[in-house]
Write a structure and sequence with these properties.
two-stranded antiparallel sheet; 42% helix; 12 helices; binds zinc ion; binds coenzyme A
């Protein structure tokens, strides 16, 4: 099996993770979480989103969060933007890396951002041009790349065409998202093998939710197809408020642990992640889905 020696992990907990928490998490807690993640060796994270506060109230303090965190020179802080207005807000707040999102499935996109898929793609063309002019890093998410909560399985052809179109615009990174965590390892391998065959100029990242517990298997499948960048969420937090049934992301600590066990470097310190987990636990009433902290609880009990 040919595997990479090094993998890049993108922490999406502060955005994808927290956006699905119903109870408002105080701004200082979000800041504490990000500051703690700064100490783990992670180099990239989605820190907030500039979406409508009515639709996602949890993200209404994006500005205060970005102003309050310690900006480590070693970390790239990204903000999700759903439309041109979100992009404007991100720039007003000094954001240097934006995370655009369009659903491969039209129904999901309408539910998520109230525009057809084509409208979103067209609106973002101008955003991408402006971002390139201003040397803003452009991460472009293709949500529901495998399955849609409303339409079912998404055709690979649709995703491949989007990858080509978005890549031709000159973006820095394209993120292939299993938004509802419904893909299996075979489907994951097949899609990434075809994406790799296109040879995009943009870096490719996989964003795989863990609804059926397949996320680690899907990550391995993607790794074998040459993917070396993965979105994960501390504690396995997360889900999309506009994708019914979606569970959290692959847990950062589990993914990092698995990769290290396989001899793959991430630059992330597991012990530092464990400290961050202590900050995460009180932020949610839900039991964290990550395994690592449970295994340790179990080992501690046996001693
Ligand atoms: N942030 C804040 N306000 C926004 C905004 C944004 N990104 N985009 C639009 N608005 C404001 C407009 O200025 C307008 O304000 P006004 O009534 O004071 O004039 C109002 O919202 C309506 O604008 P419109 O363009 O019609 O927005 P919409 O109601 O169709 O909502 C989104 C579109 C994208 C803003 C909304 O659907 C949204 O925030 N979705 C959240 C998506 C999300 O977070 N998904 C999970 C992550 S993938
Ligand atoms: Zn997600």
């Amino acid at each position: 099996m040919t595997l990479p020696l090094k993998v890049n992990i993108v922490e999406v907990g502060p955005r994808d993770g927290l956006q699905n928490e119903a109870e408002f998490i105080p701004t200082d807690k979000k800041i504490e979480l990000i500051n703690s993640l700064n100490q783990t060796g992670l180099k990239r994270m989605e820190a907030a989103s500039f979406v409508h506060p009515l639709y996602v109230p949890q993200m209404k303090d994006a500005r205060a969060v970005l102003q309050g965190i310690e900006h480590s020179p070693d970390v790239q802080y990204m903000a999700l933007v759903p439309n041109a207005k979100g992009y404007e807000r991100a720039l007003e707040n000094g954001v240097k890396a934006v995370s655009l999102v369009v659903g491969a499935s039209d129904s999901f996109n309408r539910n998520n951002v109230k525009m057809s898929r084509e409208e979103s793609l067209r609106n973002f063309e101008a955003v991408v041009k402006d971002a390139r002019k201003n040397q803003i890093f452009i991460r472009y998410n293709i949500a529901t790349s495998f399955w849609c909560p409303f339409e079912g399985r998404v055709e690979e052809k649709a995703v491949l065409e989007m990858v080509q179109e978005i890549d031709s615009q000159g973006v820095d990174e394209i993120v292939i998202c299993d938004t509802i965590g419904r893909a299996n390892p075979k489907q994951t391998a097949e899609l990434f093998s075809q994406i790799t065959a296109i040879g995009p100029r943009a870096a490719i990242t996989a964003h795989l939710h863990d609804t059926y517990g397949f996320a680690l298997a899907n990550i391995l499948a993607a790794l074998k197809e040459g993917v070396t960048s993965f979105d994960t969420s501390i504690g396995g937090l997360g889900g999309c408020p506009f994708a019914p049934g979606a569970a959290g992301n692959a847990a950062t600590e589990d993914v990092v642990f698995m990769l290290h066990e396989m001899g793959i470097e991430t630059g992330i310190d597991i012990d530092a992640l464990k400290q961050t987990l202590e900050i995460v636990k009180p932020l949610t009433k839900r039991e964290l889905t990550g395994r690592l902290h449970k295994v340790q609880a179990c080992a501690a009990a046996a001693n």
